[in-house]
Design brief:
CATH class: Mainly Beta
Structural class: alpha+beta
Number of domains: 1
Number of strands: 9
Distance between the termini: 27 Å
CATH topology: Pnp Oxidase, Chain A
CATH architecture: Roll
Strand content: 35-45%
Mean pLDDT: 94
Shape: elongated
Oligomer: single chain
Order of helices and strands: HEEEEHEEHHHEEE
Low-confidence stretches: none
Largest sheet: 9 strands, antiparallel
CATH superfamily: Electron Transport, Fmn-binding Protein, Chain A
C-alpha cells in the first residue's frame, strides 16, 4: 500500500485546473461544469437558479451566460449587478463572485445570437414572458413549436428577447474534497491585475 501523500497543490496548479474545468464546461454539455447556480440580489431577498455556461475568458476573468431580458433575473441584475456563481463536479466546488455586465442591443449580443442554434433560439419565442402566470401547465411556446425547431426566419423574432450576461470576476474560491483532507483556496484580483491567492481552512 502506497502511504505517500499526494503532492500539495500550488496556487498556479489550482488556477490552471479550475479554469480548465470551466473551459470544459463551456464546450461539453455533459460536463458537471456546464451549468452553475447563479445567485442574485432580488428586492425580496436572495434569489438563485441554474444557468448554462456559454463563455469562459480566463484572460479577462469573464464567465458568460444567455438569458431572456424579460426574466426576473435580468431585472434583478439591472437593479444590482453583484452576482455569485457556484459550480460542482469531480470533487471540486468553484464559487465565483463578480459584477454582471448586461448586453442586449449591442455587438456582443448580436454575435452570441448568430452562434445560437435554432433549438436554443426557440426558448426566446415564448409568450407571455418567463415567470408570467398561466391558467394551466404550459411552455409559452406556439403550439407548432412544441416538438419542432423554428425556421431561421421565424427564430428572428426571439432576438428582441435575447441577452447576454458577462460576469466580470473579482473573487474565486476553490474547494477540493478528498479523503486525505479537503483543500481550499481563495483568489482575488483588482481590475485586470493578477490573481492573488491565499489558502483557507476548508
Amino acid at each position: 500500500m502506497d502511504s505517500r501523500e499526494p503532492p500539495s497543490p500550488t496556487f498556479a496548479s489550482v488556477l490552471d485546473g479550475l479554469w480548465s474545468q470551466l473551459a470544459e464546461g463551456q464546450r461539453l454539455r455533459h460536463s458537471p461544469f456546464h451549468q452553475a447556480v447563479l445567485a442574485t440580489c432580488a428586492a425580496r431577498g436572495p434569489s438563485a437558479r441554474y444557468v448554462v455556461l456559454r463563455q469562459v475568458d480566463r484572460e479577462r476573468g469573464i464567465l458568460g451566460f444567455h438569458t431572456d431580458r424579460r426574466s426576473e433575473k435580468w431585472t434583478e441584475l439591472e437593479r444590482d449587478p453583484r452576482v455569485a456563481l457556484c459550480f460542482f463536479g469531480q470533487n471540486v466546488q468553484v464559487r465565483a463572485e463578480g459584477r454582471a455586465a448586461l448586453h442586449a442591443d449591442d455587438a456582443i449580443a448580436d454575435l452570441a445570437w448568430q452562434r445560437t442554434g435554432l433549438m436554443s433560439r426557440r426558448c426566446y419565442l415564448a409568450h407571455p414572458a418567463p415567470g408570467a402566470r398561466l391558467d394551466a401547465p404550459g411552455s409559452g411556446l406556439p403550439a407548432h413549436l412544441a416538438k419542432h425547431r423554428p425556421e431561421e426566419a421565424e427564430s428572428a423574432a426571439g432576438r428582441a428577447n435575447f441577452a447576454v450576461v458577462q460576469v466580470v470576476l473579482q473573487q474565486i474560491e476553490w474547494l477540493h474534497l478528498a479523503f486525505e483532507g479537503h483543500r481550499r483556496a481563495r483568489f482575488q484580483r483588482v481590475g485586470q491585475g493578477p490573481w492573488r491567492g491565499e489558502w483557507r481552512v476548508p
